[in-house]
Amino acid sequence: MTEPLFTYADDPAEPGWKRWQFRDPTRFNAFIEPLFVRIEDEIARVRMQPRREHSNMRDAVHGGALLGFMDVALFAASRGFGSLGAGGAVTLDLSAQFIGAGRWGEPLEARIELLRETGRMLFLRGLVVQEGQPTIASFTGTLRKMG
User: Fold this and answer.
1) Domain that holds residue 34
2) Which one of 13, 77, 105, 146 has the fewest beta carbons within 10 angstroms of its own beta carbon?
3) Mean per-residue pLDDT, 87-114
4) Per the domain annotation, does 1 fall within a domain?
5) What is the mean pLDDT of residues 72-87?
6) Whether 126 contacts 111, CB under 8 Å
7) How far apart are CA 35 and CA 33, in angstroms?
8) Rounded to an integer, what distance in angstroms lies between the CA atom of residue 7 and that of residue 137?
9) How far is the C-alpha of 49 from the C-alpha of 118, rounded, in Å?
10) Count of beta carbons in the 10 Å neighbourhood of residue 147
11) What helix, strand, coil percent values describe the chain, rounded to 5?
């Protein structure tokens, strides 16, 4: 049996949170990880710690880094909901609306809701927020579960 590609386990440094991390640090996910996941009242809270390397020339979190976070957060949330296991999934669509600027050096949080799950599809929506800031972005995504 092969080892899972991701770790998803309680994080001793963040009580109440699961740590979601790709085991291969040379892959894209490592750019935004580690992520922390918590399910509260049917909402997945997925956190990342944006670093300077995630910033743009205006010293805010780059839109591309935010899009990458939104995409990976959909998968982390779906794992937290129990909708994704070892079979994985692919992103069919991701639509985002940028509303404000995020600061690097302070945690960003995607709050994601599972709208519907079918045998092969997951329909989700979320908001990206940061403490002390108005909403940074809203997004929707559709994932197709693999076999």
Assistant:
1) 6-145
2) 13
3) 94
4) no
5) 86
6) yes
7) 5
8) 27
9) 32
10) 5
11) 20, 40, 40
Residue type, 129: V
- DSSP letters along 71-119, please? HHHHHHHHHHHT---TT-EEEEEEEEEE-SPPPTTS-EEEEEEEEEE-S
Residue 2: per-residue pLDDT: 58
- In this prediction the pTM is 0.90
Q: Identify whether 117 is part of a domain.
A: yes
Contact partners, residue 4, CB within 8 Å, separation at least 6: 23, 86
- 27-67 residue pLDDT tens: 787 888 889 999 999 999 999 999 999 999 999 999 999 99
Burial code of 98-111, b = ≥16 C-beta within 10 A, e = fewer? eeebbbbeeebbbb
Compute the distance between CA of residue 99 and CA of residue 32 in angstroms, rounded to an integer: 20
How far apart CA 134 and CA 99 sit, in angstroms, is: 8
pLDDT of 132: 86
Domain membership of residue 34 (yes or no) is yes
CATH code, domain with 91: 3.10.129.10
Number of domains in the chain: 1
